[in-house]
Write a structure and sequence with these properties.
Length: about 260
């Protein structure tokens, strides 16, 4: 097995490796890796270093298979100060995931920082207890919980970093590192027993006010579930220097 999450096949085709596998079905990917691959494509297509990504919305249009994917992209709203870039992943002739990202000019003047401190990064963390879950993504990311754990209901704070590059021989960008783990907010902060309930997110929206620093990204996550409504998982996203943005996921909540 290659060390990367994806292997290039040429002609905008990518092969997902076992590192992308989600915990419930060996045929399908966790939402983190395809979100990161879409984010990488947004940056690649834009090709600008004078802008930063301020918001990314990833729409999960169907189950993303652990297999061959076709990647396409376009700038849907070009501009000097702001641009909107779209990237799409397809499998078997149908779109399975789509990202739209607003990119804005970097701040050109010095502004005072009001960031609060991030939760302390633990020196080490216990191994993830897989139980009946399928391995793949859960082991391809290193997790260090400050509070809570996988499968333990309630709010949770965890640090996470990719153990492998997204694509071979390439250092992941700050945006890629964030998107690779931001889709885990609902998984680490479930409010209902994970063995009896689905809380599936058809989308992920990440707002960023600066680029991440270093390998580690912290998710301070909580989930809200209201009777007769939808679920909502929100995460404050931080690095070792403090908060850098927020992530949110709308959830389908239903018995298994």
């Amino acid at each position: 097995m290659t060390d990367a999450f994806y292997v290039p096949l040429g002609d905008d085709r990518w092969l997902a490796t076992a590192h992308t596998t989600g915990p419930w079905d060996a045929r399908f990917q966790h939402g983190g890796p395809p979100s990161a691959l879409l984010g990488r494509e947004v940056e690649r297509l834009s090709g600008r270093d004078d802008v930063v990504t301020a918001r990314v919305t990833v729409e999960i249009l169907g189950a993303v298979p652990v297999g061959e994917l076709v990647l396409s992209s376009r700038v849907t709203r070009p501009g000097r100060s702001v641009e909107l870039v779209q990237a799409v992943l397809a499998a078997g002739g149908r779109d399975v995931a789509r990202a739209e990202a607003w990119r804005v000019l970097r701040t050109t003047q010095s502004v005072p920082s009001r960031d609060r401190a991030a939760p302390a990064l633990p020196a080490e963390g216990p191994p993830v207890e897989l139980g009946d879950w399928i391995d793949g993504y859960l082991s391809a990311v290193e997790w260090r919980f400050v509070t809570g754990r996988f499968g333990e209901p309630g709010p949770s704070t965890t640090w996470a970093r990719m153990r492998h590059p997204l694509v071979p021989d390439e250092e992941p960008s700050p945006l890629v590192r964030v998107l690779a783990v931001a889709d885990s907010g609902n998984g680490v902060s479930s409010e209902l027993p994970i063995t009896g309930w689905h809380f599936i997110n058809p989308e992920l929206t990440v707002h960023l006010h600066r680029e991440a620093v270093g390998e580690w990204v912290c998710l301070d996550a909580r989930t809200a579930v209201s009777p007769g409504g939808a679920g909502l998982a929100t995460s404050v996203l931080s690095d070792v220097d403090g908060p850098l943005g927020v992530g949110a996921q709308s959830l389908l909540v239903a018995p298994r």
